[in-house]
Write a structure and sequence with these properties.
The protein is an alpha+beta fold and 67 residues long. The protein is built from 2 helices and 2 strands.
Length: 67
């Protein structure tokens, strides 16, 4: 009951059993999908005006699509 139990089929994970408490915890973390209609004009303006932190430059190479 302390850790998930993975059941395999031909060395490939096919089922994970976990406690009901862990399942409930994960369900509480489910994310909600929003559409643009869910945001106000102020929300959209705030996103448009935002800047990525300088630390994010580390990931700029992931945007390279030339290869």
């Amino acid at each position: 009951m302390r850790a998930p139990l993975t059941i395999t089929n031909h060395d490939s994970a096919s089922l994970v059993m976990m406690s009901a408490a862990e399942y409930d915890r994960l369900k509480r973390r489910d994310r909600q999908v929003l559409t643009m209609d869910d945001f106000t004009d102020e929300d959209r303006a705030a996103v448009a005006a935002s800047k990525a932190p300088s630390d994010a430059a580390t990931f700029d190479s992931e945007l390279d699509t030339s290869s």
